[in-house]
Design brief:
alpha/beta, TIM Barrel, eight-stranded parallel β-barrel, three-stranded antiparallel beta sheet, 11 helices
Length: about 350
């Protein structure tokens, strides 16, 4: 069995060819797609966060709205760039969104990917300390955030408060018990995957990893996941960790599918996501369901994960993406033992 959700970047473009032409469209359609995904049997609605972009930039209002409109599915991010985040304010927002959803938040965080602007985090008021990189700063913010989610009091109460305080040091509110175990870190390298396991976070791995061996993408991804699990075990964590991978999967079941994706002959390829970092990019899968089943059966990265996130072309509209999700859930997943 696998948890199957969707991952949307929330792209919008004023072009008449786009089904998502404004920020309002992107947000409202994201909520509608989460509702539709729940109705067709999916398990999760996840959203990518990018700043300074025509995408989804402020996740917590969206997550809270999805939580209020749905009843069962997990609600998450993949990922929030921690270089931009105030961990204290973020802990309050995350606690509120989790309580609204009834404890269904699955919050993916990370250092983030290449940006639309140069050092965008500086515009948010964050600058790495002397001797630190922006990645160091992101991990520092994450460590503070994780500590806050433990719910321990740390602030000295005012002896003359406006309202009565509980005894002892005060914590941030609202506090949502159990959220600390539902924090994920997005990793693209083996050292980062191992650090994630050591820190006791779940692991998110996307459609690219940094090229460490020259092997096919899905094999390198599987090796990183195994390294993460080993690091988790070595750290002595007692619960079972969770791992998600992302894939673009399109069952071709009607003429619209074939028009959009019937000529997709995607293969793994290598390139540079940053000037000095060579990456392996995973293929897309687009085929008749029977063929898809056989191709996906050989994907080692998916085999190592308990959660699969389907990257969706959100500008094709809610109805079409709900159809794609339903096709995977009902026509592909059962034959692979995912259902």
């Amino acid at each position: 069995m696998k948890s199957i959700g969707f991952l949307s970047f929330g792209h919008w473009n004023p072009s008449p060819h786009s089904g998502t032409r404004s920020a309002s469209d992107a947000l409202l359609q994201s909520i509608d797609l989460a509702v539709a995904a729940e109705e067709v049997g999916a398990d999760g609605a996840y959203f990518r966060v990018h700043h300074f972009a025509r995408q989804l930039g402020s996740p917590f209002p969206l997550l809270a709205a999805v939580g209020a409109r749905t009843k069962r599915i997990e609600i998450g991010t993949a990922v929030i760039d921690m270089r931009y985040e105030n961990p204290l304010y973020m802990a309050e927002d995350a606690g509120a969104a989790d309580l609204i959803s009834g404890g269904r938040l699955q919050l993916g965080i990370s250092r983030g990917s290449p940006e639309q602007v140069i050092d965008g985090f500086k515009h948010f008021g964050y600058v790495p300390a002397e001797g630190q990189t922006d990645a160091d700063m992101a991990r520092g913010h994450a460590e503070v955030f994780l500590e806050l989610l433990n719910g321990q009091g740390f602030a000295q109460p005012n002896p003359r408060p406006m309202f009565p305080n509980p005894p002892g040091l005060l914590r941030l509110e609202p506090f949502s018990a159990g959220l600390r175990e539902r924090i994920w870190w997005g990793a693209a390298s083996t050292p980062t995957a191992e650090w994630t396991g050591k820190m006791g976070m779940n692991l998110q791995s996307s459609t690219l990893v940094f090229d460490e061996t020259g092997k096919p993408f899905h094999i390198q991804q599987a090796e990183q996941i195994r390294a993460y699990k080993a690091a988790w075990k070595a750290a002595g964590h007692t619960r079972t960790p969770r791992v998600s991978v992302s894939r673009s999967i399109f069952p071709l079941v009607n003429d619209i599918d074939r028009t959009y994706f019937g000529n997709d002959s995607s293969e793994d390829h290598f390139g540079y996501i940053e000037p000095t970092k060579r990456a392996a990019f995973g293929r897309s899968y687009a085929a008749e369901p029977d063929r898809l089943i056989e191709e996906l059966r050989g994907d080692e990265g998916i085999q190592e994960a308990d959660t699969l996130l389907l990257t969706v072309p959100n500008q094709l509209g809610v109805d079409y993406n709900a159809h794609v999700i339903e096709s995977v859930v009902k026509l592909v997943a059962p034959a692979l033992g995912w259902r």
